[in-house]
Backbone:
């Protein structure tokens, strides 16, 4: 049905374009120059009659004949140009070009289009999405054919250290810190399957004590090892992370990705729209969501959706604390405490960037909460255990705050 409608529209447009060209080649209305020529000739005859009746003299008659004669010559030249234009082949050239365009469009559609594809009602699309979901490859199959990331060749010293780490973990398989380090460094080397296996063993070792972040990290490594595809193993890890913490943003992002991979933008859209509204803007999942959310909204049947503008949530930085120095001591303390507690509450409920965790760690000692800062430092180390640049930033803040 769709291609019939398109063909009909193309036909109407073709007729609208060709009609003026065809009229130009056929019988047109008389050119204006022909009418002018008849008028001027009638005027010449009228001059002769006026001269015979004695209305004008010979001098005036000659003057009028010269003036009208010039007009006759001009009209005759204009008539010749009009006749020549009617005989021009330019119209036929345009018609031939239009025909070639139509034929080319037809063959292009035959090659790239799908004229025989039936309409797909919502129920059929949902059934197709379910079939795609059910036919996913296993984790082993996905790992076998999934592309592995290209990483720079590590130096020999680093490789030797990782070999030692592997030996240590093999001798002490129940050491959580060893498994944690092994998962981190195997990922850094690009050995995603080995990193995933180490993280899986770590989660199994911690059992009920495994955090949502541990499980979300396992889900992420499982998906990466499968070349970005969320298999049943990856989906299970995501579900376990959400069972620990239903608000875990990384796990929710992966749920939305799962729906996208299986043809259900209607389910992915509300999840990703919620994450985008929550922020923070610096979270690693915000950039891919913001890049795709407009198209995703359209596919989900929400064409009027408008993404929220990027925003930076407030937190107590050095400038804010410095500005508080001009306040009376009691007000200054309350102001700083309020900012620090606001940042801590947001990080606890929504998560945040390594920079924000470092800011919190360095701010807590300012309000006299040295011991609490150490507890937050431990939580930050655990949260960013697989992110060495983030750990470096957090350790620098701890050193500056005197927490070593």
Residues:
């Amino acid at each position: 049905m769709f291609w019939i409608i398109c063909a009909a529209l193309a036909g109407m447009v073709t007729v609208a374009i060709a009609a003026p060209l065809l009229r130009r080649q056929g019988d047109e209305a008389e050119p204006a120059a022909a009418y002018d020529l008849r008028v001027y000739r009638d005027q010449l005859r009228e001059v002769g009659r006026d001269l015979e009746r004695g209305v004008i003299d010979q001098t005036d008659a000659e003057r009028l004949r010269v003036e009208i004669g010039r007009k006759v010559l001009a009209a005759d030249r204009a008539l010749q140009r009009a006749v020549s234009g009617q005989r021009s082949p330019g119209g036929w050239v345009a018609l031939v070009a239009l025909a070639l365009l139509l034929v080319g469009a037809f063959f292009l559609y035959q090659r790239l289009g799908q004229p025989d594809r039936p309409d797909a009602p919502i129920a059929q699309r949902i059934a197709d999405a379910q079939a795609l979901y059910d036919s996913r490859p296993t984790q082993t199959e996905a790992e076998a054919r999934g592309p592995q990331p290209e990483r720079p060749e590590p130096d020999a010293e680093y490789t030797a250290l990782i070999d030692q780490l592997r030996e240590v973990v093999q001798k002490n398989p129940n050491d959580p810190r060893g498994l944690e380090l092994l998962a981190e460094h195997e990922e850094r080397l690009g050995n995603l399957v080995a990193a995933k296996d180490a993280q899986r063993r770590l989660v199994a070792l911690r059992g009920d004590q495994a955090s949502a972040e541990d499980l979300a990290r396992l889900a992420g490594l499982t998906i990466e090892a499968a070349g970005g595809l969320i298999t049943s193993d990856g989906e299970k890890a995501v579900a376990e992370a959400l069972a620990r913490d239903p608000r875990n943003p990384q796990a929710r992002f992966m749920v939305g990705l799962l729906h996208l991979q299986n043809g259900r933008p209607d389910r992915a859209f509300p999840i990703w729209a919620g994450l985008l509204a929550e922020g923070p803007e610096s979270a690693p999942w915000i950039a891919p969501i913001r890049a795709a959310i407009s198209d995703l909204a359209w596919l989900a049947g929400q064409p009027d959706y408008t993404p929220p503008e990027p925003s930076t949530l407030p937190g107590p930085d050095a400038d804010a604390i410095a500005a508080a120095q001009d306040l009376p001591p009691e007000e200054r303390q309350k102001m700083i405490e309020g900012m620090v507690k606001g940042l801590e509450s947001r990080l606890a409920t929504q998560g945040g960037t390594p920079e924000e965790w470092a800011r919190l760690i360095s701010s807590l000692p300012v309000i006299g909460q040295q011991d609490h800062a150490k507890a937050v430092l431990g939580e930050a180390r655990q949260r960013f255990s697989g992110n060495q640049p983030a750990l470096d930033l957090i350790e620098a803040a701890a050193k500056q705050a005197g927490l070593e």
